[in-house]
Amino acid sequence: MARTDMADVAAERFLSEVGKLDVVRRDVESLVSPYGVVSGVWEMPGLRGLDRVSVHCAMVGSAWPGLIGPEDTYGCGRAVDSADLARFISIAEAAERSAAFLSIDGVETRMGDLTGKPIDMSSIPRCSEREYARADCPLRPFDPEVPIRWVKGLELVSMEERWVPAVMAHYGIHSVTEGERFWNGISTGYALYTDPIEAIVRGACEIIERDMIALTWHQMLRLPKLVVQAPSEQLRYLMKWSEEHFIETYLFDATSDMGVPTVYCLQRAPFDERAQHVVGAATERTLAEAAFKALLEAMLVRLLCYDENTSLRDLADFRSVDDGVRYMGIPERASAFDFLTDEWDERATHTEDSRASLPEDSPSALDVLVNRFAAKGIEAVVVDSTPVEIRQAGLSAVSVIIPALQPMSLVPTAQYFGHRRLYEAPRIMGFECRAEEDLNPWPQPFA
User: Fold this and answer.
1) Cα 421 from Cα 243, distance rounded (Å)
2) Bridge-partner residues for 251, per DSSP?
3) Residue 6: its pLDDT value, please?
4) Which residues contact 403 (CB under 8 A, 6 or more apart)?
5) What pLDDT, on a 0 to 100 scale, did the predictor assign at position 27?
6) Cα separations (Å) of 19 from 22, 97, 253, 359, 405?
7) Which of 36, 95, 402, 421 is the most buried (most CB within 10 A)?
8) Which of 228, 164, 80, 222 has its CA nearest to residue 403?
9) Based on the number of CB atoms within 10 Å of its own CB, is 128 exposed (0-12), middle (13-18) or buried (19 or more)?
10) Alpha-carbon distance 93 to 73, whole Å?
11) Considering the chain, what is the average pLDDT of its residues?
């Protein structure tokens, strides 16, 4: 298969995994019901003139009779040249979100009273003392003497069972207790797929992607620019539309010391009063594939900035995971993105062949990831979060937890500035490392 075809093929990989495309689509559609896992699906208007791009959203249902589902939680699917695929992905992502909100099978106890080995809680991300001292910081240090809920997972390097705090394995956990307020969970590391091994690969890759999103923004890393020398037709289409609408596109090789192809994308629209700067990122099998997905994400994130009902003036106004996009998109925040484009002509240039690809087949890809975790002494735990309704549709839902990597936090006052990864990783990758007081003061512009 030609390398330039990878971005086109990637979109169909999800549907073709089991070789029964129509059956998988039908089973996933069975999840859609006013009283089911996914309560509804609708097509979203896109960007003007971007006619080949389809965007669908699917609302998460309760999945339990009589129980109200999580408010305003949905999955999003986007695809080029396939409305059916966009709809399918939106349903699958909503089902993934739903799995995080369902009941858990675990125990509630102090860490020292567990029967079995917990993950190394001394390695989990934590806020700095400066952050904890803020009155508006929602998090607290972990206290091993306070009972919390725990669930069992499988540590991928040792292949041994590990107890994991339920709040880290199920971000939709109900009624978070005081002792569980050491963690602010979002959907990072959650994945749903026809093949459970591929679900683990994708969950781990998302954590690796979010790690670099956080490191890039907080440490203001001067990433090398990426030039895709043989772009797919779909990538050329997105680039051409952007250029014709006076939007400048900057692609960066954001592959970390984990060695998995990752791309960070910045789009600058000098004449846009709401979305002058937007960003996207993706971790995929190849840099070319990651570039396509990062650019597609950045382009469609732009839509969030046009919400007429949102006016953010202060960090205290943040309520939604989308707020950072809107807050940072306006022209007044333009200087916050200068570190990404300063000395652009002098930066090192990478191409899509600059990084080794991750193997296409799922077992080999997982082997590569596990070997890299082992080489770095990193724990990586997977928790099976598949409820019966999703399993009956032929899908597996997992949550992956890798405490050693830096989380991407969308809470401005809780960015995990006390995590050692934030200060060790830049040096490992050959970048300048900033002390806490010199970190980027602006909130994450991601959603």
Assistant:
1) 37
2) 265
3) 37
4) 119, 120, 123, 124, 125, 379
5) 79
6) 9, 25, 33, 19, 34
7) 95
8) 164
9) middle
10) 10
11) 90
Contact (Cβ atoms closer than 8 angstroms) between residue 372 and residue 259:
yes
SS3 303: helix
- For tokens 């069972």, the residue is 161
- Pair of tokens at residue 334: 């333009």
Amino acid, res. 113:
D
SS (H, E, C) 154-189: EECCCCEEEEEEHHHHCCCCCCCCHHHCCCCCCCCC
CA distance 262 to 325: 20
Q: How high is the pLDDT of residue 315?
A: 80
Instruction: Collect all residues with Cβ–Cβ distance below 8 Å to 133 and sequence separation of at least 6.
Output: none
Structure tokens at 259: 């060695």
Mean pLDDT of 136-144: 96
Residue 88 near residue 95, CB atoms below 8 Å: no
Q: 42: which strand partners?
A: 57
Q: Are 99 and 174 in contact (CB under 8 A)?
A: no
Instruction: Report helix, strand or coil for 417.
Output: coil
Strands 225-227 and 349-351: parallel
Tell me: the pLDDT tens digits for 8-58?
Answer: 444 444 444 434 455 566 778 889 988 788 989 999 988 889 999 999 999
Q: Which helix (H) or strand (E) holds 289?
A: helix 287-301
Letter for the amino acid at 235?
L
CA angle 75, 81, 86 (to 5 degrees): 15
Maximum distance among all alpha carbons in the chain? 62
- If phi > 0 it is left, if psi is from -120 to 50 it is alpha, else beta; for residue 175 that is left
Q: Are 406 and 211 in contact (CB under 8 A)?
A: yes
Residue in the block written with tokens 């994945």 = 191
Helix (H/G/I), strand (E/B), else coil: 87:
helix
CA 382/CA 396 separation, integer angstroms: 12
Any idea how long the chain is? Answer: 447
Q: Structure tokens of 152?
A: 């069992």
Cα atoms in the 13 Å half-sphere on the side-chain side of 350: 23
pLDDT digits (tens, 9 = 90+) for 60-111: 886 554 444 455 678 899 999 999 999 999 999 999 988 887 656 789 999 9
Q: What is the pLDDT of residues 356-366, one digit of tens each?
A: 999 999 999 99
> Which residue do the tokens 């990478």 mark?
350
